[in-house]
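User: Show me a protein chain along with its predicted structure.
Assistant: Here is one chain, sequence first, then structure tokens.
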Amino acid sequence: SKVTIIGSNAFARCTSLTSVSFPAATYIGSSAFYYCSKLSKIYLTASSVCMLASTNAFFSTRISSNKGSIFVPSSLVASYKAATNWAFFSNRIYSA
């Protein structure tokens, strides 16, 4: 089965993590990637927008420091850019 929920602190402090892909994610919890300092790419390819509990999910990652990218289905780019908490990262959201 595919992961649909990435819980709070799920990958916190995984400093070697550089890229993650979740083809079925529907929810990302607070601090999920907290202090994953090398995380620069996340792929969310489910057919609906994944809920983001808080912008601190990517605290102290390359995504939060404006050096990373979030890849989503092309049909959802505008929806992600406008969605609660995702809007904070709108300039880092791209078509997968």
